Amino acid sequence: MRVLDLFSLARPEWGVGEVARCLELPKSTTSELMASLADERLLARTAKGRYRLGWQLFELSQTLLDTTEFRTEARRLMEELVRSWGETVHLAVLDGVQAVYVEKLQPTPAIKICISRTGARLPAHCSGVGKVLLASSEWDHVAALFEDQGMSALTLNTITSLDLLHKELCKVREQGYALDEEESMVGLCCAAAPIRDPAGTTVAAVSISVPAYRFYTKEKDYTDAVLDTAWRISESARPKPREFSNQEM
User: Fold this and answer.
1) Which residues contact 211 (CB under 8 A, 6 or more apart)?
2) pTM
């Protein structure tokens, strides 16, 4: 896992020696590890003897997405939201203190203001979906993670104080939604709401991303729309009452 975690968009290709130096492992051990990962298709060798991520990871990620219970119904309702408003819509889950996008839908033609992609990660403290997901977690656990990993600032509006984040998450819990007012990207805002399982536990968040100049004039409308979509996705996960036939009655 330490080897696989090195690969990124900024650096998609690594040599054995580079990995060995980075992880402070013997070169022979690193060579064996990477060869084994390549045998299992988790890594792929290039013509120059270097390594890139393998297609087995893509297959595993597709299996994960396709077996995520709420995703299929969520996509249908997200498509309705995109058609109604002509804006980009995201579905995200929480991994530590990062929001992971498991679905992204955008209008056609797409306005390329939102550079996210399915599988991308964003610090949870500066995104609408992230704040919704953090608000459902125990604060002591959240605070400990941020104290360890820090709170980076993506824009001048990003919250970088634990005290301010705590107040923000209390507000999110109270009002039932979160806003990102140019906190992750200048010129982009979003409204996000929680998706809950039948037990009432927040399992994901859905958001609508809107250019700031449009968002500020219709903030309530966008918020109401995403709240309605989140509620409908949550309701779709609830067991349906059984319908009895006349013979059974």
Assistant:
1) 111, 113, 187, 188, 189
2) 0.71
